[in-house]
Amino acid sequence: MRLLRRGLWLGLLALLALPAYALESWQDDQGQAWAVPKTLPSRWIVLGPHLVDMVHELGAAERIVGVQDDHPTPGRHTRSLSGHAVVGQSGSISEERVRALAPDLVVFWPTGLSPVQQRRLRRLGVPLLAIAPETLEALPERLRWLGALAGRAPQANALADQEAAALVQARQRYTPGPRLRGFYQVWQQPLFSLSKQHLVSQAISLCGVDSIVPDATIEAPVINVEAVLLARTEIILVSAPEHARATAFWRRFSRLPAAQSQAIVAVDDAALTRPGLSLLRAIPALCQTVMPWRNRPSVPVSP
């Protein structure tokens, strides 16, 4: 028995002594094949505040030489809130500034950079790493890509494993149980929401709220008020700054279940709409926010 135990301990120690798993190749979210180069890129332009967050979390901020403007108010900002040189706004960049910074890697969110500018950057010979995961579960894996290119594979793997485990725990804890018909209101005039495939909608679904938005091919479809009413929507989620206005608007419809149960609810949309670690970490708070209405009996619709 002692020999068996000793053998098990030696086997465990051998496993712990193995080098950390290091990603060597992958396909990015535009299908581009990648392999870790012998000389790692050291001058990164990172387009998307959530992607900047991920690079910072890996301890690789020193590699960033340029970003898109992340200030909440428009203006001619030369430095981002994260302290990096600004090369453009969301959706567009200054190619002159990019050339001046001589990057050897551009990390970008495809919908945040026009196809025309993507083609121009590729013609400059700058490698473009597209990050746009289609599921919440795919988000932690993108950390491994960045970690491999930054020489931070151990940190990236540990963080990816941690975030993936937290997501599994959130699903196990919050997804079972009563579900609500819900509407995530991005804006009121015009009234639009997010498609069911959007990462924010996936997070809301994880929390037990089924979107009433019809299947759509665009990320942010315009929705008729009548569609929200006909779906007998039980909860409406809206950003905190828009909460008072949304509450006044929807309470006019006395037959709407969400109005009857006072379920026009403010959520942290700044965190939810930042589709990286911020979104993943906002899920437990979102689920806790909607839980009181999930636990209530269904509200009958007044005749």
From TrEMBL:
GO terms for biological process: cellular response to iron ion. Residues 43-294 form the Fe/B12 periplasmic-binding domain. Keywords: Signal. Residues 1-22 form the signal peptide. The keyword Nucleus does not apply. The keyword Signal applies. This is Vitamin B12 transport system substrate-binding protein. It comes from Paraperlucidibaca baekdonensis.
